[in-house]
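in:
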């Protein structure tokens, strides 16, 4: 079944709401200068320590020093890292946490270098000049299908309650990731949108299972 990650969590109410709606993982943004940036790592840790068991917590970073990443991951008890910058395969391997490498997809050549990395999964987002993630813009999903040959694919970029079922049907990704398209305002999730997004993923999974 398709795993579901709700990203850009900034408060405990949104975290618990997303979990109650059926989310498998939550994303916490540690990228300075972005709308959902968690500057206070102690506050982030406090949110995470209140979560129920079996929920995966993922920390987002962009071109951060290894010491910063490790310190934040250890201090917040993160389960996984998600790297959105120009981190090298060697850098990803040097970290002592499971890692997801985010890749901005522009064309087919964007997919070809995934084989250089040995990570737990690849998050595919849309290439937008000057933006390293959270674009809210979709890309050609056929490129995501081609990327599956390299490992577990987490589909992101422009997903919302209206199109996520089609994305799941076409790509059959390991997981899907959403942030801005299920918000009431930057950093504040909309319970109706979150619920609809998760429900539509689960319905797409059910229909696929019934037909196979």
């Amino acid at each position: 079944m398709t795993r579901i990650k709700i990203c850009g969590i900034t408060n405990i109410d949104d975290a618990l709401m997303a979990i109650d709606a059926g989310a498998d993982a939550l994303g916490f943004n540690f990228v300075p200068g972005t709308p959902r940036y968690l500057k206070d790592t102690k506050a982030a840790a406090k949110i995470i320590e209140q979560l129920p068991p079996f929920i995966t917590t993922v920390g987002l970073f962009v071109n951060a020093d290894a010491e910063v990443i490790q310190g934040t991951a250890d201090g917040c008890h993160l389960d996984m890292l998600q790297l959105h910058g120009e981190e090298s395969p060697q850098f990803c391997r040097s970290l002592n946490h499971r890692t997801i490498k985010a890749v901005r997809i522009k064309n087919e050549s964007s997919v070809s270098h995934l084989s250089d990395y040995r990570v737990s999964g690849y998050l595919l987002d849309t290439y937008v000049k000057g933006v390293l993630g959270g674009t809210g813009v979709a890309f050609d999903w056929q490129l995501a299908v081609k990327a599956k040959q390299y490992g577990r694919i987490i589909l992101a970029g422009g997903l919302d309650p209206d199109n996520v079922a089609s994305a799941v049907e076409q790509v059959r990704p390991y997981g899907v990731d959403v942030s801005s398209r299920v918000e009431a305002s930057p950093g504040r999730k909309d319970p109706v949108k979150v619920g609809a997004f998760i429900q539509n993923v689960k319905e797409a999974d059910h229909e696929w299972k019934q037909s196979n």
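note: The CA atoms of residues 19 and 55 lie 8 Å apart.
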